[in-house]
Fold this protein.
Amino acid sequence: MRLRHIEGAAEFVASNEQVILEQDALAMSGHWQQLFANESPLHLEIGMGRGRFLMASAAAYPQINFIGLELCEEVIMQALQRYQELPPNIRILWLNAKMLDQVFAKGEVERIYLNFPDPWPKNRHAKRRLTWDDYLHKYQHILDDEGTLRFKTDNPQLFDWSVARFADNGWEPVALSHDLPLEESGIISEYETRYRRYGQPICCGEWKKGRK
Ligand SMILES: C[S@@+](CC[C@H](N)C(=O)[O-])C[C@H]1O[C@@H](n2cnc3c(N)ncnc32)[C@H](O)[C@@H]1O
């Protein structure tokens, strides 16, 4: 999702009390449940965009705490303007996914969602893909022993490349599909809604945490 610079977006996002900023997040490692004042499991969406998936998931599963991670302040601003009141089981984390292993303790997260991450199609940009080994190692660190990750994309090349990355890093596939039917897709994100409208097949994979 590419958005033009919006004057004041950073200030808007930083002043919203439902958004966790990097410096605060660094102090939260190992203590995220305290923020929600309960012991519910933590689910993390990486690259939440404008928050459609996060909001619908939090409403459907009030017994789960959801954190939406997003790098781009303009996108977070749009999510906050769209939804205004977030339910108590959501927080937005304004952060680069590179820092995940600094803000979550080992095993602190039960499930990760990667919905339609940027494909970075050029080979020389492969390390920017959110399914590159360095990211998989961070996900492995923060997931608990039974932790799972679900990845969806409309891009079959990115999907096949990612399936190989997960395999090489010892992740155990639970389900892999190059054309996931809508009825099996569960809650869908903004990008998934758009691609399904265009009739594009949706690739989806789910893995158990890597053992390497
Ligand atoms: C293509 S959009 C998909 C949005 C949403 N997940 C959906 O499916 O509708 C990808 C999102 O990931 C965010 N993103 C990309 N790289 C990121 C990173 N390293 N850390 C956090 N967010 C990132 C982008 O800013 C963008 O909002």
